[in-house]
């Protein structure tokens, strides 16, 4: 959508008034850095940035903090946003419904908004973009994906002249920490989740991370930007890492792979040349020589393939107070400059409006780990099952089993998700298959 | 410098007229992609992009090309630039003096400029930025550093709210190809240069690449952006890779390192707290577990450390017609949007105006490879020499030598470049030192 209102700017040297909504880890870092480096920010923005207030739900909780000392605390976010001397609203509260109301109110009042809220952007991008367009103001959200790693900006601007084919990202630090620790120690999922919690990498309730919901929000944002199409979190097929076992990791390692939770966004083309897109989050076998395999601990990385640019990767800290504050502050300078000098950042771009593919039609490859009856002829039977579904096998490895059973590890060639899924269902009922232990998708060759 | 003129924009849907100067590998890809994807570009820019002409020095050479078929070729660049229906000039000629004249003429005529010309930007950024500011137009040069890898944009925008501490980049694909091939095959510099030439990674005259001049231009641009200070190629200390031997590579490998040609930009602070900056290009020992060590073949990568963001890395194709065209096209969309909707991109930012440190004052570490007389007491003598210059040793390894000589490999702790250089001079005259074979700096621990 193109802007309908034009913002001529306040003029060089004008003050930009800022409201900060939320004063947790990110909000307090944002305020501290703005106060400490006020001169730098004035130079970079073209005029001084002045914080008019910091809205919190309970002022008592923040007594003695910098915001309190500066007399900035308020528990009336709605009034703060509407103040005439506020040009720019920074939303770092989290959650969806309450920040949605505040952000919409800010945009409709002609204030530009900077948010770090991936869940909000992934759920309500259309509504937010329309409000920003109608008021001719900016909506920035670099921090919503992979914190300080510039990826929203590069997709919106640097790659604006290119055609993105795919994006594959490690966009959740908690799950990467757990999987990386399982890979390096051989320990179980439960033990490494406990370790992540102990070290502060996982929250008390880790559901949003380990079930992939956080990554799915980011996948929706990345797919929207990459393919100029509106994609929400509901459009993203999502599987978490809770079923990954130490044996899965060990088997992957033995075959030259590691397991990562990836957010994958693909541009697809059917035989008739019709394009569609797919966004998905699931555990994925990645070859150990792939750049994404070497992203360790809680680091994030986004791998982009574009028609002209080829392969690009962006790597860094994907979470935490300081890295998130860095991204928020970069957006504040950007939105602030537009308030001073006029102009607007590129807004939502949805002109391509590509259909979302059925998940069953997405091409992928499976790694299937099953326990089979160790008798002569079992391989022939299984091969027939794969062939009947049109699936060809890439590798078959046999692990030593217990007693008279064997563990069979099969990697398929690329096929439709639905055909692969149907094959797995048939395998489960095959006489020679005792159990299908795990099914993990593969990328990257 | 802040803009003095304000550009209100032509309005949504307006056509942006474009002049392309130069029709080599990059120029022809830019034209092709603009023609093939015209609808996409119109959506992304907010109005159609129309190429008004392609300026070349000799039209005869380009008969039958797309530019010829479209009737766009002209040998009069000066007139093309000044046409009233040209809003945006794309400079992909290369060289310095002639493109400088054309780019200045374009900016002074109120045309925004997109250039891929690192040598021009590194040599004349001040003059170009002033001309752009006076006319209130944009100067974009994402392609000047590492082609399609977004790094100019991220430094200018995404990290605008952060404090960059250092930038270390592999910004020259030719030298990375040669050093990577030496590392993986054990072959000599001359052999791998010949291989690079044969495969098209090195030009017939490889001087600008192998002597580090190309990387020095990029270092100047990166340091200017990172530190908000004007840095030209003349401010960059520059050493190439022509003296790197197979033995250097093998010794580095044995110690867990690889050798990369790095462009290093540092923010320094003396005891009194005064800040300065240094930009340098030289072969560098990088630990093999450092992300930059895993950048192979002709790929580029830029590693950035910032106060709040922490460590970031940008990786991808740093050269070639298509990747360079991708960056140029992204800039065309950005500059085109500003022509349509008004506003300007962030211009040159030099407010910090930090002094350039003397190269002798830069802290670094040395790896010194020398042949010594293999007698008892030689280690004691050498240790004294280092101590006399205030240098402490980190590791000392002895290789087996020929006859009665030994090869000694010393890694120092961090010290001032001038003290390390003086130590090497003293070593050369020491009775027990037969030869100082090589001195290579180190980074990354």
From TrEMBL, chains A, B:
Residues where NADPH binds: 118
EC primary class: oxidoreductase
A biological-process GO annotation: methionine biosynthetic process
Purpose: Catalyzes the conversion of L-aspartate-beta-semialdehyde (L-Asa) to L-homoserine (L-Hse), the third step in the biosynthesis of threonine and methionine from aspartate.
Record EC number: 1.1.1.3
Domain ACT: 367-441
Family stated for the protein in its record: Belongs to the homoserine dehydrogenase family.
The species this protein was found in: Corynebacterium matruchotii ATCC 14266
Any GO molecular function: homoserine dehydrogenase activity
Residues of the active site: 218
Full protein name: Homoserine dehydrogenase
Lineage of origin: Bacteria, Bacillati, Actinomycetota, Actinomycetes, Mycobacteriales
Record's keyword terms, sorted: Amino-acid biosynthesis, Methionine biosynthesis, NADP, Oxidoreductase, Sodium, Threonine biosynthesis
PANTHER family named in the record: HOMOSERINE DEHYDROGENASE
Top-level taxonomic group: Bacteria
Catalytic reaction equation(s): L-homoserine + NADP(+) = L-aspartate 4-semialdehyde + NADPH + H(+); L-homoserine + NAD(+) = L-aspartate 4-semialdehyde + NADH + H(+)
Record-listed NADP(+) binding positions: 21-28
CDD domains: ACT_HSDH-Hom
Pathway in which the depicted protein is active: Amino-acid biosynthesis; L-threonine biosynthesis; L-threonine from L-aspartate: step 3/5; Amino-acid biosynthesis; L-methionine biosynthesis via de novo pathway; L-homoserine from L-aspartate: step 3/3
Family matches, as NCBIfam families: PRK06349.1 (NF004976)
Binding site for L-homoserine: 203
Co-factor(s): a metal cation
